[in-house]
Amino acid sequence: MKRMDRDAMARRVAQDIPEGAYVNLGIGLPTRVADFLPPDKEIFLQSENGLLGMGPAPAPGDEDPELINAGKQPVTLLPGGCFFHHADSFAMMRGGHLDICVLGAFQVSVRGDLANWHTGAADAIPAVGGAMDLAIGAKQVFVMMDLLTKAGGSKLVEQCDYPLTGLGCVSRVYTDLAIFEVGAGGARVIETVDGLGLEALRELTGLPLKQA
Amino acid sequence: MIDKSMSSPEAAVADIFDGASVMIGGFGAAGMPDRLIEALIAQGARDLTVINNNAGNGDAGLAALLREKRVRKIICSFPRQSDSHHFDALYRAGEIELELVPQGNLAARIHAAGAGLGAIFTPTGYGTLLAEGKEIREIDGRNHVLEYPIHADFALIKAQSGDRWGNLVYRKTARNFGPIMAMAAACTIAQVNEIVPLGALDPETVVTPGIFVQRVVMTMASAAAA
């Protein structure tokens, strides 16, 4: 079997984002999805710090420290894009106006619980940012993550043991080995990489997975 | 004649008192009122409660205020960053209190204060550590957490242009928390890159109406906005 690399995962997520969608891409791996959105489709990228219609990184030398994304990296604004304050930005999330957000995760449960803000380690300094608002706000929450930890444990789990970000909020999980639907009905497999069967995936995750 | 413009950042922050609660605008460095913070450090007020999205980056601005040990408590959503070393050191030494608030709840609580609401019920954070011990109410089949407004004695914000009545427009993503912090503080002080004559700001595009702003101070465009 062949694991998907990060670009392949980002390309795969990008395929599932339809024209006209209002989308927030989380910090880290999800940001890469922007590089694979088809240029012939109009898709609106929202950034929590107050812009809609976010464009790619500027050319070297054209950076503006007052035009940044949620990761505080310089970005551009597309024609038709706009700026707004924080209460409006989070009203877009909480008010259910965003169609899709894509987030990273430490763990996702088969019911769609998300853990992505805190390892729970005693010496960790907690930071939450917009993670909890995004998790419960967007109409669909996609997670992008490796399926397995470095130690080989599954990050798709029966029940999260990291502190939760939101309950039952994730609808789909894109991993390097398979794509899952999660929710009240449990986890179902949408597709797997070549050479990985459903039974092998059940063994890797220790979960009673069904085919979608 | 009403003229809210101040002669200097130092004059604008002169009456910030020990123990005051101070909102500071900005998302990272974008929108951070660096000159007002420098003046506040020089002024010497201590035991401050600071409300900001972050807890300082690098060594300037809010990070410098923390380094000088002027801040007793910080209310923020995202303190831990690769360059938040001053906060990290104080936090690990137990020398600063942290109230961690999801970013949207932070915005909503600040907005609620400015709008005169007694409290809000928000779905954000339900079922998480950050809702522990808080009242939960099911509304329309969804669980919500009771959160209270965040008021402040002062707000220090940054805008692009202002006039002597305190009307403000912002620049790009430096707007972030400025408009809602202006509403929520008893005394809002805006650092602006230019003060323009009354009538020069298009009334259709004024973002913060002057009623929310008590003082305006023009500073040289900082390096961050050059």
From TrEMBL, chain A:
Keyword Transferase carried by entry: yes
Any one GO molecular-function label of the UniProt entry: CoA-transferase activity
Assigned keywords, A-Z: Plasmid, Transferase
Pfam families with a match to the protein in the record: CoA_trans (PF01144)
PROSITE patterns cross-referenced by the UniProt entry: COA_TRANSF_2
Family: Belongs to the 3-oxoacid CoA-transferase subunit B family.
PANTHER family according to UniProt: ACETATE COA-TRANSFERASE SUBUNIT ALPHA, KETOACID-COENZYME A TRANSFERASE
NCBIfam families named among the record's database cross-references: pcaJ_scoB_fam
This protein's name: CoA transferase subunit B
Species for this entry: Azospirillum oryzae
From TrEMBL, chain B:
GO molecular function: CoA-transferase activity
Record has Transferase as a keyword: yes
PANTHER family, per the entry: ACETATE COA-TRANSFERASE SUBUNIT ALPHA (PTHR13707:SF60), KETOACID-COENZYME A TRANSFERASE (PTHR13707)
Protein name (database record): 3-oxoacid CoA-transferase subunit A
Keyword Transferase carried by entry: yes
Protein family according to the UniProt entry: Belongs to the 3-oxoacid CoA-transferase subunit A family.
Pfam families: CoA_trans
InterPro entries linked to this entry: 3-oxoacid_CoA-transf_A, CoA_trans_fam_I, CoA_transf_BS, NagB/RpiA_transferase-like
